[in-house]
């Protein structure tokens, strides 16, 4: 075989190899280019530097606003004849809650009749004393004494009337328990037929307004320095697991429970639709700044694969880079990136796993 023929074969082989490489590169570029359909399915997020935030999770419960709760005590003893409401009922101010037949009420009625009679007698005696004084048959002193007796009798009658007003008594021997405010019956310790003693120290009803409620949460001793008044708070309950209730830390109770070694904080919430009920368990999330700033992207943009974290850095539809990043931490929908990204770069934050698989399989 002559040398010229061998040289021709080498040159032909080189050209063929170059053509194959060029074709492979062309096919590779073509494979990496996102289609119009794929461009519509992905979302891009710009990398930016943000203050590093953190979150403190607390356990608490829903309570009624103590300033809008009134405990109703029996002012007299007796037999409970009727109970007109049940636990959880909404009541209006002045609505009858229960009726108690009481011997004490009958005694008050007797005192009222006696006081009214004594006023009439004292007024009649005063009129007689004044007539006699005008006829020179008695002295000014006797008129003065008669006036004093009228004042004393009227004072006693006024006292009995005030007792009737305070107790809400009528013209019979029944004591009617009425609601002092509009609200919900949040506790009930009375039933028909129950015998109530006059010295009973337990409330029979508790009526509370729950258009606003409190969340009382416990803060561990180690977390106390992180909590500040005014911090935004997200509240979740078991009943409404998919719904967030938002409020702010309204008060910090600067004492520790001697048994649990926790400090209580209070979050005030508007209770739209009365969804939140007293005694519901609540999970409270408090957000606060750690201090300092760091590169941040949507948490959904991070791909965990082969024990590492990756993002898809988008430059254009044919230039997409798979880049390893170091995640400092994730908080809700934000990922704080320690290394691997720069401000103003763009990452794919939706359907990025499809692009990742296409480029790295």
3D architecture notes:
By secondary structure, the chain is α+β, with helices and mostly antiparallel strands. Among the domains are: 55-66 and 209-290, Elongation Factor Tu (Ef-tu), domain 3 (Beta Barrel), CATH 2.40.30; 69-101 and 173-208, RNA polymerase II/Efflux pump adaptor protein, barrel-sandwich hybrid domain (OB fold (Dihydrolipoamide Acetyltransferase, E2P), Beta Barrel), CATH 2.40.50; 103-172. 29% of the residues lie in helices and 40% in strands. It contains five helices and 20 strands. β13 (245-256) and β14 form a beta hairpin.
Write the layout of secondary structure elements.
Elements: H1 3-32, H2 36-41, E1 43-46, E2 48-64, E3 69-72, E4 78-83, E5 90-91, E6 96-101, H3 103-134, H4 140-167, E7 174-178, E8 183-188, E9 195-196, E10 205-208, E11 212-220, E12 232-237, E13 245-256, E14 262-270, E15 281-298, E16 303-305, E17 308-316, E18 319-331, E19 334-339, E20 346-350, H5 352-360
Antiparallel strand pairs: 1-20, 2-11, 2-15, 3-10, 4-6, 4-9, 5-8, 6-7, 8-10, 11-14, 12-13, 12-15, 13-14, 15-19, 16-17, 17-18, 17-20, 18-19
Helix pairs in contact: 3-4
Task: Based on the model shown, name its key terms.
six-stranded antiparallel barrel, OB fold (Dihydrolipoamide Acetyltransferase, E2P), Elongation Factor Tu (Ef-tu), domain 3, single chain, alpha+beta, 361 residues, rod-shaped, four-stranded antiparallel beta sheet
């Amino acid at each position: 075989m002559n040398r010229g023929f061998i040289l021709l074969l080498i040159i032909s082989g080189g050209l063929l190899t170059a053509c194959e490489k060029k074709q492979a590169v062309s096919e590779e570029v073509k494979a990496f280019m996102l289609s119009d359909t794929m461009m519509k399915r992905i979302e891009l997020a710009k990398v930016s530097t943000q203050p590093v935030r953190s979150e403190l999770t607390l356990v608490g419960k829903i309570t009624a606003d103590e300033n809008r709760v009134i405990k109703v005590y029996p002012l007299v003893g007796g037999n409970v004849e009727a109970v007109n409401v049940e636990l959880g009922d909404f009541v209006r101010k002045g609505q009858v809650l229960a009726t108690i037949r009481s011997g004490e009420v009958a005694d008050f009625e007797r005192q009222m009749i006696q006081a009214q009679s004594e006023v009439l007698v004292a007024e009649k005696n005063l009129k007689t004393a004044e007539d006699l004084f005008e006829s020179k048959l008695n002295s000014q002193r006797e008129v003065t004494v008669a006036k004093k007796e009228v004042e004393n009798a009227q004072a006693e009658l006024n006292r009995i009337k005030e007792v009737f007003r305070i107790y809400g008594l009528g013209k019979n021997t029944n004591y009617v328990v009425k609601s002092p405010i509009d609200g919900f019956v949040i506790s009930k310790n009375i039933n028909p037929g129950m015998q109530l003693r006059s010295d009973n120290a337990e409330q029979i009803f508790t009526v509370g307004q729950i258009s606003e409620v409190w969340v009382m949460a416990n803060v561990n001793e180690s977390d106390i320095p992180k909590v500040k008044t005014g911090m935004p708070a997200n509240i979740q309950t078991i009943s409404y697991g998919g719904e967030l209730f938002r409020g702010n830390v309204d008060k910090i109770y600067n004492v520790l429970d001697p048994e649990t070694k926790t400090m209580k904080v209070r979050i005030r919430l508007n209770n739209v639709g009365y969804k939140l009920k007293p005694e519901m368990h609540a999970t409270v999330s408090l957000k606060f700044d750690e201090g300092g700033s760091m590169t941040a992207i949507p948490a959904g943009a991070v791909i965990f694969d082969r024990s590492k974290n990756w993002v898809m850095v988008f430059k254009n539809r044919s230039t997409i880079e798979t880049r390893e990043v170091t995640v400092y931490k994730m908080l809700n929908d934000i990922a704080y990136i320690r290394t691997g990204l720069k401000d103003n770069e763009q990452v794919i934050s939706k359907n990025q796993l499809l692009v990742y698989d296409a480029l790295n399989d």
